[in-house]
Amino acid sequence: MSDANAVMPVNELNKRARHLLEREFPLLWVAGEISNLTRATSGHWYFSLKDELAQVRCVMFRSRAQALPWRLENGQQVEVHALVSLYEARGEFQLSVEGMRRGGLGRLFEAFARLRAQLGADGLFAAERKKMLPRYPRAIGIVSSPQAAALRDVMAAIGRRAPHLPMILYPTTVQGDGAAASIAMALRTAATRKETDLILVVRGGGSIEDLWAFNEEVVARALAACTLPTVSGIGHETDVTIADFVADLRTATPTAAAEMVTQGWYEAAAEIASLDTALSRAAEYRLTSAQQGLDMLAPRLIHPATRLRMAAGSLNLLDSKMKASVSNQIGKRRVQLNQGALSLYRGMPRTETRTSRIALLSQRLDASLRRMQANRLGTIERISAALNHLNPESILARGFAIVRDENGHLIADAKGLAMGQTINLRMANGDIDAGVLAIRPG
Q1: DSSP string for 21-34
Q2: Is the confidence at residue 1, as pLDDT, over 80?
Q3: pLDDT of 109 above 70
Q4: Per-residue confidence (pLDDT) for residue 350, from 0 to 100
Q5: Stretch 322-336: mean pLDDT
Q6: What is the DSSP string of 111-147?
Q7: 2 forms bridges with which residues in the sheet?
Q8: Which structural domains are found in the chain, ordered by start?
Q9: Which backbone phi and psi does 300 adopt, to 5 degrees?
């Protein structure tokens, strides 16, 4: 920011810091011990890389972690190929790991260390003696074996990126007895002829013994004495030789050497590819940053049982509120009902005059009923007296009797009796059982 007094938001500060770190630090190798290893559900790995004095947070995204040929564990010694970056959301300095290898695999012989120290003291590794590579070379010389696969890789890369460039091979053996002298001779021949603008010294990967010719002093001295700029592309990315330190430029592989020296010619097409790569990387960063944020937020997810308890508490609260509301409504309706009843009472018609009228009519009705009752009783008494005259019981009181046989059948004629038969006589004051002693016709 040009204005020292301007206020910068935190997110802008972190974004600029990340861009600065990624621009200033290229992909580099960092060695240390794995600790605090965490495997997220997204497939990303988070861990710390530490040594005796410090540690740094690292993230290895799923696409890179899946390519790892062994299971990563805490306590392992590793070397990571990483990009220095910053996780903007938390402002944390971290390494974005692109590749990884086990630590302790790089082996240097005592002779290698001794020669390196000697040549370093002689100034063969000094930066000031390094020659600048031409950006647009007109011809490229190659010091390698005609049968080497590395030569074919280099020629294919140059032909693909700058097909117009002529290539001149200075053949040599690259392994075994006499290989170091042969390499030195090829370098001197190329420098003497001056047919090219620079020289590539290339060989494929192998063991430290296979690459030992490039650790010989004669090769180092020939590279230092060469008047043409030299580029080494020896072995794989992890292989390091004395020739790499002496050459004007060291590249990781033979193909990388070919790509480096054709960079100028490839720049136009590469600019478009670079923009595409930058766009892809920005999208990937947004995605991975969002995934990191998701990994950070994942532990904050509420368990369903907790949500149920919270919902139950809310339900109980709502139930209490509902009951209170219903009770309040009932109270209001009761008040309204009482007020309505009072209004009805006040609106009722006055019945005092009608009450006296009803009382008078009631008295008249009672008198009429008494008269009617007396008339009915007189009639009933007359009818009752008439019935009494016809009642058989009244006849019995005058000395008559009702005769029945032993079965209770009424006997109205003496002819229906037999001598010695038991009969029942019903009299006014009781019944008499008797026997027939004699029958006399009337």
Answers
A1: HHHHS-SEEEEEEE
A2: no
A3: no
A4: 64
A5: 88
A6: HHHHHHHHHHHTTTT-GGGPPPPPSS-S-EEEEE-TT
A7: none
A8: 10-102 (2.40.50.140), 110-266 (3.40.50.2300), 395-435 (no CATH)
A9: -85, -5
Q: For the chain, percent helix, then strand, then coil, each to nearest 5?
A: 50, 20, 35
User: What does the radius of gyration of the chain's CA atoms come to, in whole angstroms?
Assistant: 64
Average pLDDT, stretch 299-328?
83
Task: Give the pair of three-digit tokens for residue 381.
Answer: 């008494």
% of the chain with per-residue pLDDT over 70: 94
Q: Which residues contact 75 (CB under 8 A, 6 or more apart)?
A: 33, 34, 35
Q: Tell me if 80 sits within 8 A of 49, measured CB to CB.
A: yes
User: Tokens 């206020």 — which residue?
Assistant: 7
Instruction: Name the token pair of 26.
Output: 């290229």
Q: Any residues with CB less than 8 A from the CB of 342 and at least 6 apart, and which? A: none
* Cβ partners under 8 Å of residue 84, min gap 6: 21, 22, 24, 25, 28, 95
Alpha-carbon dihedral 213, 218, 220, 225, rounded to 10 degrees = -140
The predicted structure's pLDDT at residue 106: 44
Q: Could you tell me the sign of the dihedral formed by the alpha carbons of 260, 261, 264, 270, in that order?
A: negative
Contact criterion met (CB below 8 Å) for 213 and 174: yes
The CB density around residue 294, as the number of other CB atoms within 10 Å, is 13
Question: What kind and span of H or E run contains 204?
Answer: none
